[in-house]
Each structure stands twice: as C-alpha cells, then as structure tokens.
Design brief:
The protein is an all-alpha fold. The protein has three domains: 58 residues, no CATH class; 74 residues, Cytochrome Bc1 Complex, Chain D, domain 2 (Orthogonal Bundle), CATH 1.10.760; 87 residues, Cytochrome c-like domain (Cytochrome Bc1 Complex, Chain D, domain 2, Orthogonal Bundle). Strand 1 and strand 2 form a beta hairpin.
C-alpha cells in the first residue's frame, strides 16, 4: 500500500534524457516567444526618427485630405469662383432675411415679397447692390461680386413665387479687355506727378486740417450709411446720441468698437454688417465711430 502511494507522487522525469528534453523544451518556448515579440515589434508602423513617416511622400499623403478640403493658400491671381445664390444667402443675407430683422422680407414669405417682386428683377438687384433704407449695399459684404448679389436675389425671390433666371458669370475675355482699356491711360499720370507733388508741398500746417477732415468724413459717412440703423435703433443698433445705449459699448474700448465696425458683428446685442455695408476706407469708418461716440460724451 505504501509503495503504491509513493509511486503516485514520483516525478515524470525519471531519466537524464527526460531532463535534457524538458530543459530543451523550456528554452525552445522562450526562444519562440522572443521571436514572436521581435516580429510583432518590427512589423508595427513606427513614427519619428528611424521611420519613413517623415519623408516627403508620407507628409504629402497626410496633408492631401486637408489640401483637398480647401485649407491651402489660394492663388490671388486665379479667377474668382462666383458663389451660387443659396451660398450667398446662407453666408450673408440670412442674418436679416431668415428672421425678418430690420423689416427684411423673410425667405419664403410670398406676401412680403410680392410687392417687391412686382418691381422687377432689375430694380431688386439694384437695391441689393447699392442698398436701400435699412438694407446695406451688398448685404454688408463689399467683397461680393454684383453677379453673386444678383444670384442671391434670384434665390430668395424664387423661393417666394418669382421665376427669375440666375445670371451667368461674365465672360473672362470681357474682363481682360476691360483691364487692358483701364491700364492704357497710365502714361499721363507720370507727367502729372510733379505738379501733384508741388501742390502738396506746404504740409507742416496740415495737422489741424487733417483732424477736421477726419471729423467731416465721419459725419458724412454717418449721414450716408450709418444713420439707416443708428438713427432709429434698427437691428439692435444703439441710437445716435443715446448715452445709455452707447455706454456698455464705449466701455469695451475704441479698438473693439473699430473692429466691430470694420469687420461686422452679430450677437445678442444686434447685427452690424462690415463697414455698415459701405465701401468706405477704414479711416472713414473709424471717424464715423468717433463721431457717434463724441455725440454721447
């Protein structure tokens, strides 16, 4: 009984050969594991130094989706690609025509658009390009082409019962000819340069005159453009001379006021198109801001 019990607990390695085989098998398992780990590590795509992920081809391949999405620098000499009417409406016109702000007829409101559509296509486009009442020129974006503005007009009116045809882009040849025609009379200007220089020679006393000119320019721009909103407080604009309305804006500082006036602003306080929808120089826009601020101080 004791011999049988003793034999059950004996090791399976009973001979030197079995011991050698067990040791060899143990090392074989370790070697195979090391080989698998090395193979796994070397087959992974490495990044950084020692890999091919930083070469020109790999970098170009990674940047291609971004380039195709339109985030690369644009060629300023390339012809402008004109937007369709819906794109212009979404980017510019929707600020007023989607909500009816400042009395703008809402998109799809046939009743509000019917009287305007009756005026005809040419009149509507002229009002949109040049501005009318609270409607700033080109919706407040002077960078828009007249054709883009006309397309936006067609898009909005056709959504409200009209059947206007969207205008085509002008032929590039016509633009080239116009450019050559405009560049022809450049020679006489060189001859006139000395007289212009002579006329502007007495500049030491021009500082007070310049300040007065800036003030007059600001007042003129306000009377021509800014009064459309700031005269009656349309679209959240602080009324001219209203100290309470201007106080929180003046507290932001002149730089913020200039930036909102030049680049436009849209928020809970109201809607301000860039430069009030005008093509005025930046200096005149700043002067108009100064003129309105001075009226409440």
């Amino acid at each position: 009984m004791s011999d049988a019990h003793h034999s059950e607990h004996q090791s399976f390695i009973r001979t030197p050969k079995q011991l050698i085989a067990a040791v060899a098998g143990f090392f074989l398992v370790i070697v195979i594991g090391i080989i698998l780990l090395v193979s796994f590590a070397t087959n992974r795509q490495l990044t950084g130094a020692g890999s091919e992920t930083q070469n020109a081809e790999a970098v170009t391949a990674r940047l291609r989706p971004v380039a195709e999405a339109g985030f690369t620098l644009k060629d300023v000499n390339a012809p402008k690609v004109l937007q369709n009417g819906q794109a212009v409406y979404t980017a510019v016109c929707a600020a007023c025509h989607a909500t009816g702000a400042a009395g703008a007829p809402k998109l799809g409101d046939a009743g509000a658009w019917s009287a305007r559509i009756a005026q005809g296509y040419d009149t509507l486009v002229q009002h949109a390009v040049n501005g009318i009442r609270a409607m700033p020129a080109k919706g407040g974006n002077p960078d828009l082409d007249d054709v883009e503005v006309a397309r936006a007009v067609v898009y909005m009116t056709n959504q409200s019962g009209a059947k206007f045809k969207e205008p085509e882009a002008p032929a590039p040849v016509a633009k080239a000819q116009a450019g050559s025609t405009n560049s022809a009379p450049t020679a006489p200007s060189a001859a006139a340069a000395p007289s212009a220089t002579a006329a502007t020679a007495p500049a030491p006393t021009a500082a007070p005159a310049t300040a007065a000119a800036d003030s007059n320019a600001g007042k003129a721009l306000y009377s021509a453009t800014c009064v459309a909103c700031h005269g009656a407080g349309i679209a959240g604009a602080p009324k001219f001379g209203d100290k309470a309305g201007w106080a929180p804006r003046i507290a932001q500082g002149s730089n913020v006021l200039y930036e909102h006036a030049l680049k436009g602003f849209q928020g809970k306080a109201g809607v301000m198109p860039p430069k009030g929808g005008s093509n005025a120089p930046d200096s005149d826009v700043k002067s108009a801001v100064d003129y309105m601020v001075a009226a409440v101080k």
